Amino acid sequence: MRENQVDVVIIGGGVIGCAIAYNLAKQQVNSLVIDKATRVGTEASWAGAGILTSHASTHEPYPELCRASLALYPSLAVELRAETQIDIELIQSGTLSVFFNPAEAAGLIGLADRRVKRGFAAEVLTAEEAWRLEPALSKTIAGAVLFPEDAQVRNPKLVTALAKGAAQLGTTFKLGNPVTGFIRENGKVVGTVVNGETVYADTFVIAAGCWAGNLIAMLDFPMPIVPAKGQIVLIETMPPLFQHTIDGLGIYVVPRADGKLLLGATVEFVGYDKTATLDGVKQMIDAGISIAPALAQSTFVQTWAGLRPYAKKGPVLGYLPGYDNVVLASGHFKNGILLAPITGQLIAELLTTGEPSLALEPFQPSVA
Ligand SMILES: Cc1cc2nc3c(=O)[nH]c(=O)nc-3n(C[C@H](O)[C@H](O)[C@H](O)COP(=O)(O)OP(=O)(O)OC[C@H]3O[C@@H](n4cnc5c(N)ncnc54)[C@H](O)[C@@H]3O)c2cc1C
């Protein structure tokens, strides 16, 4: 064993890195989480809206991953509360997706059918039924579909709880330190370079969100994982306007446990730029007011932007081809908060038993 050697290094202390560290720690595998920021979860995992939706419309096995992760949330919330005293504010608020015209209705009813075939509930509502559930909805909606199982969490609290839970079990953190390179011996990765210092490990997990592509490029694996900017507007109404998450006109409105409402989110491929723009904010405010005219009277609180990790074929989970000790866990794009529990579990299983409980082959890193 060299000086400065650990079993597992996890690069990235977002929700994905912290979920992996937590699951490994529960299997008595201690890891070192390295993050360039001085606190965990300050990037996409902080910026996200925290919606847990299971009606992803892409092809299996991606929805299977979403369902499995959603199913882990209730017990995880109880466990984290008991171990860390942090309430991640898991609320099964359901999503009410509103439609304004026949084309939108057809799309949403198709989604409802697919979701019912996968064993979830979905209820098509007339406009009157939707207004009874949410009286603030615009009188111009033509109807809605209710997805009652959808939920939400307060993502910054989730990351903090996962990190705290992991730390209590022996995980260590090296924060405020970017990984800038890898040390290879005979083709095998043996260390990472952090502030000019080498940290040696048996296994390396790259969970660096939209920066993961830059790190794997250093390992001669040119798979694009790019930032997809999302802007959010936080507002407040008194009394709170909605019970359900409302979805429509390309945006969502999330009623948070603290009474505030999130309007989100844009999807922009503009590089590593986290500026909130008037255009982005205007799009969400205009759509929000079309969904619920009373929102025009709400108090503006804050706006922000974050960078989702986008990979063309969806989440990439598994050993980096050509390396038997480097694992990639990134590319969760719009669903990283939803997918954190299952990602943590599967990567921990991969590293401890070699047999993840769901097949990871469809999510293998590949340059094609
Ligand atoms: C506006 C917005 C809304 C969203 N809404 C939702 C939602 O409702 N539901 C949902 O499920 N998902 C949502 N998402 C997506 C979700 O937030 C992401 O998929 C998820 O947070 C990705 O987690 P991550 O840990 O991979 O990345 P990140 O949280 O970005 O973490 C990566 C970490 O790696 C660190 N890092 C990077 N490079 C290095 C390096 N060289 N050395 C050391 N550390 C490094 C970074 O500092 C960062 O802390 C949303 C995202 C945004 C931006």
Task: Using brief descriptors, characterize the structure shown.
eight-stranded mixed beta sheet; D-Amino Acid Oxidase, Chain A, domain 2; 2 domains; binds flavin-adenine dinucleotide; 368 residues; FAD/NAD(P)-binding domain; 9 helices; 31% helix; alpha/beta; elongated
CATH topology of the largest domain: FAD/NAD(P)-binding domain
Small molecules (ligands, ions, cofactors) in the structure: flavin-adenine dinucleotide
The CATH class of the largest domain turns out to be Alpha Beta
Number of domains: 2
Described by the principal axes of the CA atoms, the overall outline is elongated
Q: Element order, helices and strands?
A: EHEHEHEHEHEEHEEEEHEEEEHEEEH
Largest sheet: 8 strands, mixed
First-to-last CA distance: 37 Å
Q: What share of residues is helical?
A: 25-40%
By helix and strand content, what is the structural category? alpha/beta
Number of beta strands? 18
Residue-averaged pLDDT? 95
Q: Could you state the CATH homologous superfamily of the largest domain?
A: FAD/NAD(P)-binding domain
Give the oligomeric state. single chain
Low-confidence stretches: none
DSSP strand content: 25-35%
Question: C-alpha Rg, in Å?
Answer: 21 Å
Number of helices: 9
* CATH-level-2 architecture of the largest domain: 3-Layer(bba) Sandwich
